[in-house]
Amino acid sequence: MSFMLIQTPNPLTLRDALPNFSKITHIFLPINDCCNPSVAEGGSHWSLLVVSIVDGVAFHYDSLHPSNKDEAITTTKKLETLLGRKLQFLDLVDSPQQENSSDCGVFVCVEMKHLLLKKLLSTPNKEQINMSMGGKNVDAPYGRKEMLRVIEGFRKEGERRRS
Question: Distance between CA atoms of 163 and 40, rounded to whole angstroms?
Fold first, then answer.
């Protein structure tokens, strides 16, 4: 979705292809730095943009800060047009940082899981949520194993349903 938004001059033309955001509180958008729509495997880095529609804030988590800041800002501006409201962009410089050039996708997945399960779904409705990832340690090797475990679980479930 973020790639479509970045590549489309008028995001309102995408309205029919996107979910209805009227009953959604948060949008999780992996951001990629690919700028060439003709290259399917383009780009070299992933980051995460979490948009709180209820608060009007877009939180950007980049494990190679500030690599994808421009792409995240562009996506936020396009979302403003699509949602019909202003969004405050927060580039969270305290995001956990990767130590190599290959863990960005794992960081995005681990951060999504943490933000959804440990922050958004575990906080009572009226309570203010601290969306900072400051101090959170991302264990990329463990994250990779966890992703494989989830995929394997889905594979086994698929086999069970087909038999």
Answer: 34
